[in-house]
Design brief:
single chain, Heat Shock Protein 90, three-stranded antiparallel beta sheet, alpha+beta
């Protein structure tokens, strides 16, 4: 017996045998067989390109002389993400405080020493004195760079409270994508947008627009060397939530990276900061919604904002 909730979660229409779960994850069926009643285990599973964290629990009961097993599945991804986000916020706050307190005096002192060195005549040969000034400048530059790095992550712990209003998804898509129109036309990217005229959400327009702009920017970078196709569309899903979807046919994301892309500091870009997707997830949390991704390497990615 296999209920509707399990079918929707596992995306397997008919489950004639527990062994079929091995198509989702190797040796999953044997772990279920070995699971003792009353115990549970957590498994990270990629289902249709989307990462889930599912807790499996087993119970046993009898009907007359027949012994039956009940297996329950619970996707706790949302709860884990919330706890993870709070932990990162605390860590970033501590790191920012400690780094700024340590680096600011170094930066100030190096600038002061450089100014003194330039003003007074030191009994040091020309090459050495030049090295001294260059070294103090390098310390000052790196200190500035480190403080700017820390300031950038301040946004993750100080997002303003959302100012809620009702607005149409179609308007949000059109205004957000307008910033990229010149680049889209120049690169001959095929753009598709779709949303019902009446489809609305209650959210902070500016914060959600910021999320979309970042996701579109990422999508365009992922299609850098491809015949690009970018899609933005909104609809009501089967659970009654409003989904706003940004889809590309770019490089895609590997399975090992899917688990990390929303973490602060994590980036696959050479000059990336690791802020964008972390910020997007936190903004969606402030809206009591969530962001998730489906992706396959070489086929592209699909980011879903659910309200």
């Amino acid at each position: 017996m296999y209920n509707k909730a399990a079918r929707q979660l596992l995306k397997i229409p008919v489950l004639s045998s527990i062994n079929l779960l091995d198509t989702l994850k190797t040796n999953l069926a044997s772990r279920i067989y070995e699971l003792q009643p009353g115990n549970n285990f957590l498994s990270a599973m990629l289902i249709k390109g989307q990462l889930h964290r599912i807790v499996f629990r087993k119970a046993v009961f009898r009907i007359q002389t027949e012994e039956l097993n009940i297996l329950s599945l619970q996707d706790i991804r949302t709860q884990l993400e919330e706890e993870e986000l709070e932990t990162w916020k605390k860590l970033i706050s501590i790191l920012r405080h400690e780094i700024m307190n340590s680096v600011a005096p170094i930066n100030s002192l190096s600038l002061s020493l450089k100014n003194i060195t330039e003003k007074i005549q030191l009994d040091i040969p020309e090459p050495e004195s030049e090295m001294l000034i260059d070294g103090l400048q390098a310390i000052s530059r790196r200190s500035d760079g480190l403080m700017n790095f820390v300031r950038a992550y301040k946004t993750l712990t100080s997002i303003p409270s959302p100012k809620f209003s009702d607005f149409k998804i179609k308007r949000l898509i059109e205004e957000s994508i307008s910033l990229f129109k010149p680049a889209i036309e120049e690169r001959k990217i095929r753009l598709k947008t779709r949303a019902e005229e009446k489809l609305e959400v209650t959210a902070d327009y500016n914060l959600i627009s910021q999320v979309i702009i970042n996701l579109v920017k990422n999508a365009m970078e992922a299609m850098e060397n491809k015949d690009g196709e970018l899609s933005l569309y909104g609809h009501k899903n089967e659970n009654g939530f409003v989904d706003l979807i940004i889809k590309d046919n770019g490089a895609g994301i590997s399975e090992d990276q899917l688990d990390n892309i929303f973490l602060p500091f994590f980036t696959t870009k050479e000059n990336g900061s690791g802020i964008g997707l972390s910020l997007a997830r936190q903004i969606m949390r402030l809206h009591k919604g969530h962001i998730h991704v489906r992706s396959e390497p070489g086929k592209g990615s699909e980011f879903i904002l659910s309200f």
